[in-house]
Design brief:
The complex is a heterodimer. Chain A is α+β, with helices and mostly antiparallel strands. Helix content of chain A is about 45%, strand content about 10%. The chains are: A alpha+beta, B mainly alpha.
Amino acid sequence: MTRDDLNALLPFYANGTLEGAELAALETALAADGDLRAELAALRAIRDTMQSEEVQSPGDLGLARLMRDVTAEASPETAPPAASDNVVPLTRLRLWQVAAALVLAVGLGLNLLPDAGRRAPQIDAAMSDSPAPAAVPGFALASGGIADFTVIFAPDATEAAIRALLLEAGVEITGGPSALGLYGLGLLESGTDDAARGVLAASEIIDDLQ
Amino acid sequence: MDSDHKFLMTRIAGGDKQALAALYRALERPVYRFIVSRLNDPHEANDILHDVFMDVWRSAGRFEGRSKVQTWIFGIAYRKSIDAMRKRGRMDLTDETVEMVDDSPDAVTCLAAGQEAEHVRHCLETLKDDHKSAITLAFYQDMTYGEIAEVAGVPEGTIKTRIFHAKKLLLRCLSGRVERGVAR
């Protein structure tokens, strides 16, 4: 086995997957070669660094979407309508936006059935991309409902900041985001219109409030 | 672990959605991490992850159990990522190695000097896709070179070559950043 061969195996020694004759050959080489040992130390450090990196995966939101589509595929008659050209697909929204909607829907006991009669018109565009939540029990997203306010969150607003603001204002996300990034907010039972509007208007993470 | 996954695959092939959910929970994070490391676009990676598990749902009956479930699923993710990159016109189709400007020997010092994650992330991004994928599967997923070869659909020797070059370039890049005192 050449030195290049051994060198190519070094990452697999670092990740602990090398076995048999290759493992034995590499251990022999490592015992005799300081440069190889130094390289191994560097590779282990790189591996440790890579493995310690946190990744924000879709998690339960992705699972909800998967279950929705699997259910729709299994029952063609319940498949969601095709998205129109002027609608931003739910799947391409920023993750925190969807996460905020889901967290609030679950945490605040949102009524997931849309009320078309009182829904803000700007929110309608986003609705057409979502299936009827009741069609997939346990995997629904908050995508429709009563909107007392329509807002646009600042692009750099975090999910945590949005959640804190909504709780402070006594409102919940009832729809959106639309293609323009508009969200519908509805008052909770404990909230009042004036108080909520004041809190929302004063917030730095609200770019627009209607 | 793999026997659990294979059991779930059998259930999925029989139309068990809860088994699909269990498999998703088990593998979603590493598969997503692999995809996003290749595409560097969380939104697109989100869509591809979804497509991967839709394929698992549709194709579970064709899984013959000759490989690990994880390897099979990573193979799907690998091919879908390539498709996505081709659509973007961002695909390197050869195994030619591009030599890096960064060049000095002390990568260990670099990693001991702080900001390791930033340095590693930067240097990974300088690698061409084939090299980055091989290193990612070796170091994020702790796969054997045989498993990586199966995921990528190439001979084991090709993976060893890719790893050899990727490692060399990665270490050079890291060392070069330290020598130049690059903070980010």
